[in-house]
Specification:
By secondary structure, this protein is an alpha+beta fold. It has three helices and seven strands.
C-alpha cells in the first residue's frame, strides 16, 4: 500500500481570482459555521476496578437535572437534551438566539454488573457513573500453597 499526499491547495488558483478563493476559505474555516456543523459528542473514559466500573463523561456547562440515565437490561444510556433561548433588545434592533444541545451515549453492560448498585454524580463538568459488580464476580484473593 502506498500513501500519496495530495496538495491542499491547487497550484496557481489564486492567480485566477484570489478574492473568490479567500471568501470560500474564510467561509468553510469559520468557527461559527463549523461549530454548528460538527456534532459534539462528549468524550468518555471507562475504567474497571476490582469492585466496579467507572464511566466518566466530559460535559461542561450542564446541570445535574439535564442528564437522563436509563438502564434497560444490559444497556446503559446517558442522554442530555437542553434548549436555551436568549433575546437581546437594543435601540434599533432585536436579536434572538436559540441554542439546542443534545446527545446520547449508550454502553453495553457485562453480565457481572449489579443493576441495583449504580450511582451518578456530576462535578466540575464531569459526570461520573459508578457501576458496581456482583459479589460473585469479585475475585477473592488468597495465597495458594505449593505442595
Amino acid at each position: 500500500m502506498a500513501l500519496i499526499k495530495f496538495p491542499t491547495k491547487a497550484v496557481n488558483t489564486d492567480v485566477v481570482n484570489p478574492f473568490i478563493n479567500s471568501i470560500f476559505d474564510n467561509l468553510f474555516n469559520d468557527s461559527f459555521i463549523t461549530d454548528r456543523l460538527v456534532t459534539r459528542i462528549p468524550a468518555v473514559n471507562i475504567t474497571e476496578t476490582e469492585r466496579e466500573f467507572l464511566v466518566e463523561l466530559a460535559a461542561p456547562g450542564l446541570q445535574k437535572s439535564d442528564f437522563k440515565i436509563n438502564v434497560d437490561k444490559n444497556i446503559i444510556s446517558i442522554s442530555v437534551e437542553k434548549s436555551e433561548e436568549r433575546t437581546t433588545e437594543d435601540k434599533l434592533y432585536s436579536k434572538k438566539e436559540f441554542s439546542y444541545n443534545s446527545f446520547t451515549r449508550s454502553f453495553t453492560l457485562p453480565e457481572i454488573v449489579d443493576h441495583n448498585n449504580i450511582e451518578a454524580t456530576y462535578e466540575n463538568g464531569i459526570l461520573k457513573v459508578k457501576i458496581g459488580k456482583k459479589e460473585e464476580a469479585v475475585v477473592a484473593k488468597r495465597l495458594i500453597e505449593v505442595k
